[in-house]
Amino acid sequence: MTSPAVDHVVDTHLHLWDLRVSEYAWLPKGSELHATFTADSARAELTEAGVSTAILVQAEDSETDTEFMLAQASAHDWITGVVGWVRLDDPGTATRQLDRWQEHPALRGIRHLVHDDPRDDFLALPAVRRSLGLLAERGLPFDVPDAWPRHLAGVAELAAALPELTIVVDHLGKPPRGRPGYDAWRAALREVAARPNTVAKVSGLQVAGEPLTVAALRPVVDTALELFGPSRLMYGGDWPMTVPFGGYQPTWRVLAELIGELSPDERASIAHGTASAVYGAPEPVR
After folding, report:
1. Is 264 exposed, middle or buried (0-12, 13-18, 19+ CB in 10 A)?
2. Rounded to two decimals, what is the model's pTM?
3. In terms of DSSP bridges, do strands 142-144 and 107-111 run parallel, antiparallel, or are they unpaired?
4. Distance of CA 186 to CAs 28, 155, 189, 242, Å?
């Protein structure tokens, strides 16, 4: 299957990194991921899957990474947006960075690697809340990666405290498939989904040692559909994080089959409609 029966698919969660540009200190040395992943390689994967365009998402909490992604967006018209980074715990610096980044039309949102931040209360810090208020004022959504287990409850509280801020839960909060805590994850995600200013990405669902199959992912995707509904979900490939699991195509085929079981309008929402509403990703010309 090359497409879930829709004519336009936006990958809302694609990474690029260049080891000549930045360190990406979290990358395991000697692993398949400790390599440079270029826009040309990504484009080949998207083309094979029948995916039209993509939004780049930051892979490092640094200005260097954001500058790199914006440069890639300038050079490749299939990159229709960038989710970058600003120093949220310093509102003054965040303001200056936002002023700078927003000169580029590709900036679509902001993210911070909360799962790598040592502060369990990061999302509740007063300085962070002020910076997130700035995002809301500027119409920029906030992506939260790998929120389970440390930050998912905090996402629900943040959404209630800043109802004007659109919050994107990357990877459905990282459900612990095949591990303890699945019911607790579901309960926490339900609290997040109860806030109308939250959306989620059906992305990044690979777990080491667990199969990436339609049967394995169906319960997770069904939960996402139940809690958020298709109009608040969007597809993300999470390449090249999928490389150790077979790469872009196996992941795409599984998710495309699950999305393909939905109605035409539901498929369109996950494939591109929600991305357009949240990130301003261009809709197809009909």
Report:
1. exposed
2. 0.96
3. parallel
4. 29, 14, 5, 23
